[in-house]
Amino acid sequence: MVKSFSFNKINKKFINVELKNGLKLQVTMPSKKTFEALQILMDTQTENTNAVEAYDSLANVVAEALSNNLNNETISKKEVADIYDLEDLVEFTKAFFEYVKEATNSPN
After folding, report:
1. Are the beta carbons of 43 and 74 closer than 8 angstroms?
2. What is the DSSP string of the chain?
3. Euclidean distance between CA atoms 15 and 57, whole angstroms
C-alpha cells in the first residue's frame, strides 16, 4: 500500500533542445493549454488562415512549449519570431509531437 505521494518527486521525461543561440533546454511535457493550442494549430486548415496570424500563433505556442523546461528558462514569442522561420517552427513541432507520443506511450 502506498503511504504517500509527492508530485515533486516525479522523474520528468524531457526532450533535449538546442536553440540557435546555443542554449540547451530540457523541455518537458506540455501543459494542457499548450497541448490544445498545438493540436488546434496542427488541425487548422491553412487555406482559411491568414499566414501572418498562423505564424504568430505557432511562434507563441512554440515559445510556451520551449519555456516549459527543467532549466527554468523563459523563451518569449518575440525571441522565437525574431530567430526562427516557419520551417524551423514546423520541424520543432513535428519533433515535439513525436516526443509527446513516445513519452505518453512509454510504460514507465
Report:
1. no
2. ------GGG----EEEEE-TTS-EEEEEPPPHHHHHHHHHHHHS-GGGS-HHHHHHHHHHHHHHHHHSBTT-----HHHHHHH--HHHHHHHHHHHHHHHHHHHH---
3. 22
Q: Counting beta carbons within 10 angstroms of the beta carbon of residue 6, is it exposed (0 to 12), middle (13 to 18) or buried (19 or more)?
A: exposed
Q: What is the pLDDT of residues 7-61, one digit of tens each?
A: 888 888 999 999 999 999 999 999 889 888 888 877 765 556 677 888 898 999 9
Cut 0.85: pTM above it: no
Q: Which residue is listed with cell 505557432?
A: 58
Max CA-CA distance within the chain?
55
Angstrom distance (rounded) from CA 35 to CA 101: 12
The CA R_g of the chain, rounded to the nearest whole Å, is 15
- Cα(76)–Cα(51) distance, integer angstroms: 20
